[in-house]
Amino acid sequence: MAGSHDRKVIRGSVVPAGGGTVDHTMLIGGEWVAASSEDTMPVVSPFDRASLGTVPKSGREDARRAIDAAREAFDKGPWPRLPPRARAEVFLKAAQILQQRLGEVAELESRNQGKTIKQAADADLPFSVDNLVFYAGAGRTMEAKNPGEFTGDGTTIFRREPVGVVASITPWNYPIMMAVWKIAPALIVGNTVVLKPASYTPLTTLELGRIFQDAGLPAGALNVITGPGAEVGDELARNPKVDMVGLTGDTATGRRIMEAASGTVKRVQLELGGKAPFVVFEDADIAAAVEGAMVGGFVNGGQDCTAATRLIVHRSVRPKFVEHLLERIRQVRVGDPLSRSTDLGPLVSPIQQKTVLDFVGKGKDEGAKLLIGGTDDHAHFPNGAFVLPTLFDSVAPDMTIAQREIFGPVLDVLEFSTFDEAIEIANGVDYGLAGSVWTKDLRTAVKAAHALRFGDVWINDHLPLGSETPHGGFKQSGFGKDLGTDSLNDYTVVKNIYIDLTGQARKGWHYTVYGDPA
């Protein structure tokens, strides 16, 4: 099948040692296949534009094939009918395989997405392994309410059952980790899944499909399909054979998915954009807050819905905070994401680079004070989608850069004088995913945590999440939960089963429909 000595067609997506161009295939019904049209899409490195191969450019016909495979697997296949223990064994095996392949998958993630290898190998991938292990156990603890006699004449049993066929659509900022977040709670309770990764970053998601296949997941239980969201994603949301759509992405995409899904009234779970407030009170530990802003703001190159992009600082400590933050930003090492010494790699694509730089220009036009960065790094990396770490001061709450999700390494400093003003600024955006509070006073911390309209609120830290902790937003950041056992509720439905205990043909209440009382 190889077209030349340096072109390979492989099952899944691990790039063979020695490089070469790889024509990847996708997983439908247990088989690794090309698109029906045989069309492909290029996948390139955002660091140097080097080719990483091609993936199938699927269309609606391919999406329907994947949906049909998932429908068949749910309606007739073994996966939904296995006991929880058996599904857990597949998950534990997948976790073991992913752990064994962690180094090569992390390198592929870094090359494809642009994130640093230290983040991929030491954070994203280990967290993904832990998610699989967690859900292996969580799937065995699913409970509904205990049976009871609620009418006097019979007993009622409440069952939690899988929703059915779930379409999972994942973003380009955390390709494999978000794929695990979406499919793990869906699969472990017995659903079948069609998984569509972002077009920029499909490679490790394809590898995840291979890992589950190697772990013994039955054919059709997980299907991984690549292609443009406007066509494939739309089909997944509209197709009546799909029972639920789960999306992690931006808010605009979430609106389109909701609209498309409304035609068949399917369940929707959305984790969308964010504009996280980072509120620094006058008594905060400034050194700790600066470190938190660095980590929270520049994580994944700022391409994170929970990124600490709005630094809302009390006026009495703002000069000191800004001074120390500038010192730390100047120490950020920009470069090759595969180097362990790199702190900031490229953004995911030249398109995203342009988007971020356009926001920088908008900030300057609206009067924000640019203190550092705000440019690409063309001199050192002419082919890379870089934006240098950027800090704006004197940002007003109504400025575009304070209201819109930038999704790049751009931090804004805003000022407040009173507690109420801080909360008003923090809550004054359309988003509600995550935020943090920095103070030594317990009462202030708890009061602020209660007042902030965000799904995750950290106190004297920013970013920590665990497999056990529910993660999801308020307002236009979506609804439903990733992580934790709460997510299992999103992917199950409650069934009420009533059992008559009287053995009587005519019940005492039947007269209310016809006849007379006995």
Structure explained in plain terms:
The chain is α/β, with parallel strands linked by helices and 518 residues long. The chain has two domains: 60-272 and 483-495, Aldehyde Dehydrogenase, Chain A, domain 1; 277-459, Aldehyde Dehydrogenase, Chain A, domain 2 (3-Layer(aba) Sandwich). Strand 3 and strand 4 (31-33) form a beta hairpin. Strands 15-16-17-14-13-18-19 form a seven-stranded mixed beta sheet, with helices on both faces. Strands 10-9-8-11-12-20 form a six-stranded mixed beta sheet, sandwiched between helices. The protein is globular, with a radius of gyration of 25 Å. The chain is built from 15 helices and 21 strands. Residues 1-19 have low confidence and may be disordered.
Task: Give the topology, please.
Elements: E1 7-10, E2 21-24, E3 26-28, E4 31-33, E5 40-44, E6 51-56, H1 60-76, H2 84-100, H3 102-113, H4 117-138, E7 154-162, E8 165-169, H5 175-188, E9 192-196, H6 203-214, E10 222-224, H7 229-238, E11 244-248, H8 251-262, E12 267-271, E13 277-280, H9 286-298, E14 310-314, H10 318-329, H11 350-365, E15 369-372, E16 390-393, H12 400-403, E17 410-416, H13 419-427, E18 434-438, H14 442-451, E19 456-459, E20 478-479, H15 486-490, E21 492-500
Parallel strand pairs: 1-2, 8-9, 8-11, 9-10, 11-12, 13-14, 13-18, 14-17, 16-17, 18-19
Antiparallel strand pairs: 3-4, 5-6, 7-21, 12-20, 15-16
Helix pairs in contact: 1-7, 2-4, 2-6, 3-4, 4-5, 5-6, 7-8, 9-10
